Amino acid sequence: MAEPPDISDNDLPPQEAVSIPDVLPVMALRDAVLFPYAIIPLTVGREISVRAVDEALAGNRLVLVLTQQSPQTEDPKPDELFQIGCVALIMRMLKLPDGTIRILIQGLSRARVDYFTRTEPSLEARLTTLEEPESGSGELEAKAFVRSIKQGLERVSTLGKQISP
Fold first, then answer.
1. Domain total for the chain?
2. Residue 149 main-chain phi, psi, to 5 deg
3. Which of 13, 49, 64, 66 has the CB geometry, 3.0–4.6 Å to 81, for a possible disulfide?
4. Domain span holding position 153
């Protein structure tokens, strides 16, 4: 099997141009939750997840990320995953000598699993994307929340802690 190419930022499609298909490969997260617009690095080592990443890279670079209900489960079945997750774009990928893969993914949209279309050799699911709620009446509360977070971060930075920009 040929190795997928290393992906650079120059190869990425514009974010607004990404259309989410109805069926995507599924990758289970052990102890994390991905949210839309968040960018997180992951180490992928389970064979079923490596296959899902390879399948996504061979296509549109999209994968449905679902969190496991129990982090101790080594090989989660479809009923051991939460049914609402996040569609993610694989931004970068690096295969390591030990067979694991390091990827950088960005959440695009929340999605709900309608049903799993395949469980072998990797999980695949039919999904429905979920729209984010409008921020109409809560705009004042959102501004107050942001102001409160900024004040808290300013207090933390005065204590000598390093904060990422």
1. 2
2. -65, -45
3. 66
4. 133-165
